[in-house]
Amino acid sequence: MGLTYQMKMKIPFDMADMNGHIKLPDVILLSLQVSGMQSIELGVSDKDVLERYNLVWIITDYAIDVVRLPHFAEEITIETEALTYNRLFCYRRFTIYDEAGQEIIRMVATFVLMDRDSRKVHAVEPEIVAPYQSEFDKKLIRGPKYANLEDPTSKDYHVRFYDLDMNGHVNNSKYLDWIFEVMGSDFLTQYIPKKINLKYVKEVRPGGMIASAYELKGLESKHEIISDGEINAQAMITWQEIEGN
């Protein structure tokens, strides 16, 4: 296992939803800020990796477990650790603790390096990952198999300029926005995710439209983000009722 890194922060007003909980896409943004700070302190920031190697980190998969979502003004601790890596994939853990030190959210993200010009996956450079002190392990962490949706409900969304990051593709937290938004406010004021598996398949290009499609059976939902007739992302979510409802 690799070096761990922690940061404390309070949930700001603009990251809280109608329920008073932090929006899960913002959990991802904050978590990536923490791993970014670790990378800066270790001398392998995103800027360094881009300038030295013309490579950028992208995320291919998330596995997220939620006990509860922190609420507005609550202080949380986000801890991250680079777990293992192999020839192509790097695995990183994010754990969020409440003020009492209880684990409330855990995420494992799969990262790959991409050549910024060719947009192709690049083999892991040992000197980039060495500062994290994570172990090389040939074992792959495989996500679930995603079946195509059969009779989905769907809604279209425009891909806006500010949905894009500096790499020119849609910020990965935006996919969760689209996935959640299509569920509707009545549902989202009663339920929060308990478990999420999310797989990024193909980049969404700027300026077009995407369709966010889903099927809901009980408290299990399956999702697809589609553009130009192709699947860009797939997700499976298990939901839990918000306490007190």
Automatic annotation (TrEMBL):
Domain Acyl-ACP thioesterase N-terminal hotdog per the UniProt entry, residue ranges: 2-132
Cited Gene3D superfamilies: Hotdog Thioesterase
SUPFAM superfamilies for this protein: Thioesterase/thiol ester dehydrase-isomerase (SSF54637)
Gene Ontology MF terms in the entry: acyl carrier activity; fatty acyl-[ACP] hydrolase activity
Alphabetical UniProt keywords: Fatty acid biosynthesis, Fatty acid metabolism, Hydrolase, Lipid biosynthesis, Lipid metabolism, Transit peptide
Domain Acyl-ACP thioesterase-like C-terminal: 148-241
Domain of life of the source: Bacteria
Record Pfam families: Acyl-ACP_TE, Acyl-ACP_TE_C
Family: Belongs to the acyl-ACP thioesterase family.
Record's protein name: Acyl-[acyl-carrier-protein] thioesterase
